[in-house]
């Protein structure tokens, strides 16, 4: 059997990381002309799904990676100035599509979700956080520091809606600052110099993907069948990294650093070329959404 990526990292990890189970879901979508998200794309608007993941860990139980949209997003954007968010990003969302509702239909009680890894603090990734009363939140502290003081228009400019975070968000946070750093040997061809071992057992590796948002992270994990790289918004579609087509420069207006974005995007392209067997899942890829999420709770 071919050695999986995470096993190849074993010298750095010391022991074989436990395998997790993975389910991918879509909670709501928005519409933008294709050319915004893909260089050379068409004028017609395309549907951009908001995906998130539910990971089942043999010891830690249910862990989410982001949440997609939730009803609270619609409430939080019902008045000005927050309404501007929805005017610029027309969102389609039905309450039964929320992360909590979809998990319930899958037989998972939202109260049993123990951890939520947050890729970054844009509203389409954190809108469902309040539906998980017992979850602890894991994220790169750089991502939170960049938005925590923002309100009104300055928050909107960062696609951040403070009221989406639970009141006790900070006391329920376990930031990645305390997670062990794993140096990734360059001879493996791994385009990221290091990763953070989220749970300390090698099962979930967080890598830095800054640019789209400050402190954005992606997650590497392996199930019994495949290795996955959940790359959040560092690439907006599978075509983007396959065909090396970044978003239109206009999309850069929402990015805190275009040069960091280019570097993170370049690393994803390199990662794909180096490890073509790894399934890379951009949060907003329609192709990945239709391929992996229509089964609603299908184990991957
Ligand atoms: Zn997003």
Automatic annotation (TrEMBL):
Chain ranges of the Metallo-beta-lactamase domain: 49-284
Protein known as: MBL fold metallo-hydrolase
Record bears the keyword Signal: no
Reported cofactor(s): Zn(2+)
Purpose of the protein: Counteracts the endogenous Pycsar antiviral defense system. Phosphodiesterase that enables metal-dependent hydrolysis of host cyclic nucleotide Pycsar defense signals such as cCMP and cUMP.
Top-rank lineage group of the source organism: Bacteria
Keywords associated with the record: Hydrolase, Metal-binding, Zinc
SMART domains xref list: Lactamase_B
Pfam families documented for this protein: Lactamase_B (PF00753)
The keyword RNA-binding belongs to this UniProt entry's keyword annotation: no
């Amino acid at each position: 059997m071919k050695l999986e990526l995470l096993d190849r990292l074993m010298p750095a990890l010391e022991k074989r990381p436990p395998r997790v189970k993975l389910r991918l879901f879509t909670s709501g979508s928005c519409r933008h002309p294709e050319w915004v998200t893909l260089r050379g794309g068409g004028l017609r608007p395309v549907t951009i799904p908001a995906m998130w993941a539910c990971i089942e860990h043999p010891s830690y139980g249910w862990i989410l990676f982001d949440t997609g949209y939730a009803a609270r997003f619609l409430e939080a954007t019902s008045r000005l100035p927050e309404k501007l968010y929805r005017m610029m990003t027309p969102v389609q969302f039905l309450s039964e599509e929320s992360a909590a509702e979809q998990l319930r239909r899958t037989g998972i009680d939202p109260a049993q979700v123990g951890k939520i890894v947050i890729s970054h603090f844009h509203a389409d990734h954190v809108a469902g956080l309040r539906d998980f009363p017992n979850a602890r939140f894991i994220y790169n502290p750089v991502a939170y520091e960049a938005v925590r003081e923002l309100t009104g228009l300055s928050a909107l400019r960062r696609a951040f809606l403070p009221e989406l975070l639970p009141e006790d968000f900070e006391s329920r946070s376990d930031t990645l600052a305390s997670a062990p750093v794993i140096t990734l040997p360059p001879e493996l061809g791994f385009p990221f110099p290091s990763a953070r071992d989220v749970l300390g057992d090698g099962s979930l590796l967080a890598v830095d993907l800054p640019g789209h948002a400050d402190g954005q992270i992606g997650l590497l994990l392996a199930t019994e069948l495949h290795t996955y790289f959940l790359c959040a918004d560092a690439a907006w579609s599978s075509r983007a990294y396959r065909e090396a087509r970044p978003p239109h420069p206009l999309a850069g207006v929402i990015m805190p650093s275009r040069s960091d974005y280019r570097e993170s995007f370049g690393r994803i392209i390199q990662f794909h070329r180096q490890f073509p067997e790894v399934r890379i899942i951009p949060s907003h890829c329609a192709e990945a959404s239709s391929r992996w999420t229509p089964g609603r709770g299908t184990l991957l």
